Fold this protein.
Amino acid sequence: MFIDVHCHLTGEEFLSVGGVEEVLRRARENGVDRVICSGFDLDSSKLAKALSEKHEDVYFCAGFHPSELKKYREGDLDEIRFLCEHEKCVALGEIGLDYHFDDNPPREVQRELFIRQLQLADELGLPVVLHSRDAAQETLQILKEYNGLLKHSGLMHCYSYSPEMMTDFSALGLFFSFGGPSTFKNANKVKECVQRIPARLLLSETDCPYLTPVPYRGVFPNEPKNVKYVVENMAVLRNENVEELKKQIIENAKKLFFKLK
Ligand code: NI
């Protein structure tokens, strides 16, 4: 059994490969037991919810990604709250900070909505799925300052900062997931993180439709079925038995996302 704890299945990217139904069928065929489809704005969160209602093995999270905040309108968080109350919503996300591109939303706006969504997750009793790019120190600083809002924990998804910072983030009680980049040839930093992380904090994802893992790197779109290449590679990197690692990842996912399910 595999689990893809972070994927985006609501876009049109999958039309060229038979549509999302086919994508899910291929995932099942390849042993993927559950997927968590992540929202990144209001529309994608609604679509993720609809997909979860149609498929037993699809769960979702709802939230505003920092790069998508240009679309944010006052009142949208009330709608996110409503979506988060759905029985198949397992987390609030993805949320965080993204300072990568100059034309990303202003940093103050990102910080404000990040904190408000942390507060909302705490009120709802949900974990958070965190996206952080080129903003390691500030993300850490906010999470430390608002540590009281992380009672239901969270996931650093597609973790790509240093192994040293991983220690700081894990001190906040967070989990970590890795995807395609951990299979890339020159990704030494990410590989070191995969090797150093305690097994009890490790999760697997694809972040599809992007970041297709080796041996299909470069193929678009990526799909949840490819999560097996991520997990198999993690087992090699960690010098662990792949079946044991698969079991551990399912345990971790249950602990973080499926407490009541
Ligand atoms: Ni994502």
